[in-house]
Amino acid sequence: MAKYLLLKHYRGAPAPVNDVPMEKWTPEEISAHIAYMSDFANRLVKTGEFVSEQALLPEGTWVRYDGEGRPPVTDGPFAETKDLIAGYMIIDVDSHERALELAGELSAAPGKDGKPIHEWLELRPCFAEMPTITE
């Protein structure tokens, strides 16, 4: 089994076919989208391929270490994940091909007018174990 991260983007990815921002959807369209995502995750729980998922709020803060006792907070001038990443799902599958299949299916979540979004998802493999550095 290999773990993959499926990243859903607010922006930064190529535009989906059904490119209507969620704030322009009806409450019923939002509910249908969320139900699709939930049903998809529940099906993967049953097959043993589900690891984790989480939708993310757009709020966030950049934090960096800047010396002992001084945790400054900064917020730019770079693209921020709060503007880019809408959520993620981690799956554990038998092959890269299965990960591609599932990502394609997740891309079909309904959007405006109940039509599939055909959104681009970023598929990234996770380290099976942290690499060992030897000299």
TrEMBL record:
Belongs to the YciI family. SUPFAM superfamilies: Dimeric alpha+beta barrel. This is YCII-related domain-containing protein. Gene3D superfamilies: Dimeric alpha+beta barrel (3.30.70.1060). The lineage of its organism: Bacteria, Bacillati, Actinomycetota, Actinomycetes, Micromonosporales. Residues 15-105 form the YCII-related domain. Pfam families: YCII.
